[in-house]
Amino acid sequence: MTLAPTEPSFLAYNERIQEGDTVIVYVTYGQMVPTVVKRGQTLMMKYGALRHEFIIGKKWGQRLSATAGYVYILRPSSDLWTRSLPRRTQILYTADCALILSLLDAKPGSVICESGTGSGSLSHAIALTVAPNGHLYTHDIDETRTSKVLEEFKTHGLSSVTTAVVRNVCTSGFHVENDADGVFLDVPAPWEAIQFAAKSISRKRGGRLVSFSPCLEQVQRACLAMSAAGFISIETIELVPEQKKIVNQHRQTLEEFEEIGDAYPKERKRNAEGEVKEDSRVSTAIVFPYSQPTHTGYLTHATLLPVLE
Amino acid sequence: MEVESPPSTTSLIQAGEYLIVQKIDGEQSRIVRFTPKQKILIEKLKFTSDSAFGKPHGLFEVSNNQCFPMSVDRLIEELQLQEAPVATTLLDSEVVLSEIVEASDPRVVIAPSALKLEPEQKRQKLEMDAVLEMKKQGVSGQEVVAKLVEGSASFQTRTVFSQSKYIKRKAKKHSDRVLILRPTIRLLAKAYYLKDPDRLAMLRADQLALILQMAGVHHGKNVLVFEQTLGLITSAVMERLGGKGACVHFHRGAVAQSIPCVHSMNYNESTLSTFLPVRIKCLLAGKQLPYENNRKACNEEEENGDKIKEVKCEENVEDQDLEALARRNDRLDRERRGLEMTFEGKAHALIIGSRTVDPVNVLELVYPTLAPSASIVIYSPHQNTLVSCYDWLSKRQTINLVLTDQMCRVMQVLPDRTHPLMAQHVAGGHVLSGIKVVDQ
């Protein structure tokens, strides 16, 4: 048995899957299982068993047969990880993660502080964005969370760009002072952490602050604290994604409706000669699922300008 | 590994730099290339570019067509002053809060002025000419607002909330504070969106962020981009690559044009090295084509074109032409690599941000040779366009197909007066994403 020549990573990968790689096993829409490929192990899921030996050497994105159906093996990405990660807390989903990265002006080379770590959904998104020469410092009050995410970073080849710290940023501030390009807060009392966020941001370069809060009361206090700490261009935004589904729309004529009602036949109609009659159905999008999240949290973002000498 | 060091933001404003200019609380922001002796205009405020050179990026105060660096502390003080009427009453009322009977909160008494239906002009003693004269003399916006409050007949009869609102409105109008900032993707997206969403295919900043995340753009990725969004998507992809990977950009004509968002980011060599423009003509032909003009003989793409002939050619041309030739050879080299990414299964992601072009047309050309497990993200302002893409993709092997739309709105956050803005830019589009898979 030989180990992969390079450290398995979310960032860099070979065309074919090697032992130690993290693979997202796509079972069905909405069911994805992340797994680290290791000889001798077997993955059990809806479509039966899949031996890891079977995965090694295959191409990313390939279809594989399990004992009771087939699955796809996908390259891990920030979005797929968010959709499939083991949840230990409430997590931030892709729409919010995406906007937070953009509001933080995150890019390769950025130094970003985050609190709390939670299940590491946003942490992965940030780490992947700031790599290879930036750094993520993630803070949480719960040691089990930071150690879990550290373990994941190691497995995912992101150790070199991440540091996880057990710390209450509302009382003790951030691990980095005067060096961050961005600070993200997802804490119950953000206003307590804002003065520390200002200290954490590089005085020379200035930086960005983003705070996520579910309640408006938290937002109001946070905004006042931001202004008091010297932040400007403070803005609060609300993001509500809406998922859609593509369906076949029935377009009945009044005659058809009168004849057969709204129970439109699933099969295409054939005429007497057995030819398919002109299909009157068209693809169209409807909002689906019928019930969707309408609120996660407000995002308040602000700028700290570099200090004039 | 070649990596880009974080751009130093400590440097000073230089001539020739692209910069974002916006008024504090302003409605628009402009991307301006600061050239010497230029008049910079932003929402009726005017100053010369020369007065900004050599100063650090940040907050400025404009007076007499000049801009001067200003401390943020002073700005924040001023902003707090605008809240003063409410803040003081709040303090007063808190003391007696327990004794207050319903509806006797001094802050919510209906102002008598609300009942008088006089036009506002009549209630303002200060004439417009006087205001203009004050501005000419270099009186600060702050002082103008103070004079306006003094001159307002109705001010004292307003509720405190209304007073604060009045001050804020006037302060916004007469503000002489500007931010001069280095462009970021976020600021560019907002500036172009506010200026003319249609030219940007209605692409909102939050949707641009979603596109990047769904495509999984990060250091080292190879991304194919077809866009009609002024180079915004291309530029955002380039920034996220951080000097390694490829951003293959399909463009009309002989050279990539109409991509101001790429030019205005002041990118360094390392970031620019990932920009691989490919002519649509070549994409359609499925191979690299020579340039069609009189200098064609000098640079056929085939390397076996005999060297002697080339040397002869070079001797005949002027230095200027030599430079042009070098540029063209660089373009051809980038294009060759771009086509290789496209047609040899090396692309990890495909992003289409279309305004007028049918995305299915692009898919037909590049989808078959995308690497398996590649993400496909298509943006369009038209939902039915994406429905056809969905139909096309679901007939091929694409999984995890998701069509989303999102609402993004800005909130007014003020003590006791927090609510979404009454009206705001809402134009936007839809995002379809999926992952390509293969049978074996």
TrEMBL record, chain A:
S-adenosyl-L-methionine binds at residues 119-122, 140, 186. Its EC number is 2.1.1.220. InterPro entries: SAM-dependent_MTases_sf, TRM61_C, tRNA_MeTrfase_Gcd14. It comes from the Eukaryota. It is found in: Nucleus. It is an enzyme of class 2 (transferase). Catalytic subunit of tRNA (adenine-N(1)-)-methyltransferase, which catalyzes the formation of N(1)-methyladenine at position 58 (m1A58) in initiator methionyl-tRNA. This is tRNA (adenine(58)-N(1))-methyltransferase catalytic subunit TRMT61A. It comes from Caenorhabditis nigoni. The lineage of its organism: Eukaryota, Metazoa, Ecdysozoa, Nematoda, Chromadorea. The gene is Cni-W02A11.1.
UniProtKB/TrEMBL annotation, chain B:
It is found in: Nucleus. The keyword Metal-binding does not apply. The keyword Transmembrane helix does not apply. GO terms for biological process: tRNA methylation. Belongs to the TRM6/GCD10 family. Heterotetramer. Substrate-binding subunit of tRNA (adenine-N1-)-methyltransferase, which catalyzes the formation of N1-methyladenine at position 58 (m1A58) in initiator methionyl-tRNA. This is tRNA (adenine(58)-N(1))-methyltransferase non-catalytic subunit TRM6. The gene is Cni-ZK858.7.
